[in-house]
User: What shape does this take?
Amino acid sequence: MDGLAADPALLEVRDLRKWFAGPRPGPFRPRARVRAVDGVSFDIRRGEVLSLVGESGSGKSTVGRTVLRLMRPDGGSIRFGGADITALGRDALRPFRRRMQLVFQDPYASLNPKMTVEEIVGAPLDIHEPATPAAERRRRVEEALSLVGLLPSHAARYPHEFSGGQRQRLGIARALILRPELLIADEPVSALDVSVQAQVVNLMLELKERLGLTILFISHDLAVVGYISDRIAVMYLGRLVEVAPTRALFATPRHPYTEALLSAVPIPDPTVKRERIVLAGDVPSPLDPPSGCRFRTRCRYALPACAAEPPALREVAPGHFKACIRDDLALASAIGAA
Amino acid sequence: MERDRAPSTAPAALAEDEVLAVRDLSIGFRTGIGELPAVRDVSFTLRRGETLALVGESGSGKSVTSLGILRLTPRAPFCRITGQVLLRGQDGRVRDLVTLPEAEMRDVRGRDAAMVFQEPMTSLNPVHRIGDQIAEAVRFHEGLGRRAALDKAAGLLELVGIPDPRRRLSSYPHELSGGMRQRVMIAIALSCEPQLLIADEPTTALDVTIQAQILDLLRRLQERTRMAVIFITHNLGVVAEIADRVMVMYAGRVVEQAPVRPLFGAPLMPYTRGLLRSVPRLDLAGLGRERLAAIPGSVPDPLAPPPGCSFAPRCGHFEPGRCDAAMPPLEHAAPEHLVRCVRWPELAAGTI
Assistant: This one.
């Protein structure tokens, strides 16, 4: 299960677990447990973009927040730059926090409307480098703004003066001002219009190359993820079901859930006709997930044996991991079909 | 001011197979700083069994157009609607919804034309059982008693693929998943067998696998009922999948309209071209690291529009003196292909 990458990774996550308290099943009975993340392992190499994809409730955002240690994990370990940060307290975490920053989904809710751009973008400096002189602070804010394609003159403005795409640029500038090594972007383009979404995706790729950033990109949009990632990890109900280099995942998916997910994405070309795999029903409740493989209740290839054991994530081709007991399947490619 | 004409030229009636004709529809909102023109001179027709996709980004006027058709926009004087919206009702009569008295409009909504919204949780009433919410429309329009209406509601739930429909009648909205709620919304919309269904981003809030289920459902229901559908979306993948014809809106105006294949295969308006190029495609993903062709800038402020073509400030083919002189008219590039761009002949010929 370990050794997902041979060279030393910037981030190593092993068997990560995060449980939340659910409802009480009855009076005086202990609360149920929502196993939001239930044994997730992956690595991110330096300079790599790893995407975490999944549908709502898959636990992908919880992984992001736990890795950032905005939450304390209930099991497993997180190593960042070789140091174990799994159990560190607030003060001990501080030097790590500046090296990993977050970009939020909603560029409207994540910027304080009463603060100027200079205050917003410079806020991380106030926390991590409070001794920065005013002139230096101003220079760094302007540098961060120009990095994301905004003008130094924007520093005096307020968030409402910007469009959605520009606001997301502000969010990225704020995340970059401390020159972090790892950027965790949780659905950063989902709230944006298509034409603007492309601007922000391009910006992130450009920044990755220019600054050597490592990015954990969390998204439900497989097409966007296909553009931005080096590798993709697919989550379903708190577990990873498949991890592979982008091209391999799309061309030769190995897990039935990945196959279904890929086939469900509509292709913007009316001449492309594909066989669509329509999954029956909804994602089961994480309060009471199915035994064995969690996807088996919606899987068209499920066997009785799938209910027995949760399948381990194992390497089936170089760098290509899957958690499925069936090796006899020929799954549909998202690329060959086009 | 130019006059946009839909391909149909019938003056005040509908051709036999047409369900809806919208002519020169304009919708303006009164604000503290003057009237905000949200939709201008929109014209189109819709035949039985046909699906028209209305595409555009936020602020393009696509949702306001659909709300205006059913007069769900605020009342005068806060909102002004001009033009014609001719709808053929269940009884075969053609009514102009722009001038119809409100009392009659209430009969039209739900019976002749129904709407499904993006967010099923906010469209359903959280304190009523879903059976009663479905039955309400049937009781109102068809005068059925409660028991008969609930029977019909159960049948509708079955039609939209909800398992165990009898038991589900007594569920509350919060007990259902997002996909199930959207199925309930569709059941309500279809309860009186409308001629026209307006679906405003019905799958945008749903996961892709659930979106696939809902698109499948809508397609099956449409085959069965031959209703006309206006599908509003910003997702070009969904458009390619479900639309017969596509209407692209930008800054409140129609900028291109065509059957789905020519629109995707040979778009003429630079905005449509830019939109298609800026969409990441799954079937091409991971092939290379070329950048997506983003459209620079963002949509214009509706209260301070640029002179001439609204798209000119973002357009790669902008030509000073031509593009910023006057709003280009919507012209026929082909019998079914309308485009609003002064340079479309050059674009069509491939000389620019």
